[in-house]
Amino acid sequence: MLNSAKVSVSEINTKKLYEAQVSDLREIPTAQSRFNEMLPDSELVLEGQAINFFQVTLDTYTRNFQYKILNRILFTNAKLSKLKLVESPLCTFCGKDEETPEHLFVFCQSSRAFWKEISSWLRKCGIDTLPDLSDQVNTMFGLFDAKSHFMLLNHIVLIAK
Hints:
With 161 residues, this protein is mainly α. It contains nine helices and no strands. The termini are far apart.
């Protein structure tokens, strides 16, 4: 029996044995579980998000930046202050709240104004089917609901961050 299923001996190979052994040991990555806590209504799968930014740009700096966001290793003032590298964990732009990636890219008033200007500019360019850039999932992970101009919109959002 493999994983509570009857399997004949002729069907068993090392790959199936290995999968049966490690299937119970797999855990959700820490970054994924943290995003699931923060966004309980959304069904995020970071593996799919990672494919998105590899398709959207060839620039390694931009890919690395998005990778840091997805894996929660982007050093904002909140993390830098814990390391005593900056004095305050407050946002560089608004100075009101702790500077986390979520605050920096979504909740900060300066960021909201920025995303509003980007949306306005894209509409002036004739892109009317624009998903909501003030939505946390769209801003942090990419625009998966974009029906048209998928690559262009995701590239602009990635560069804008």
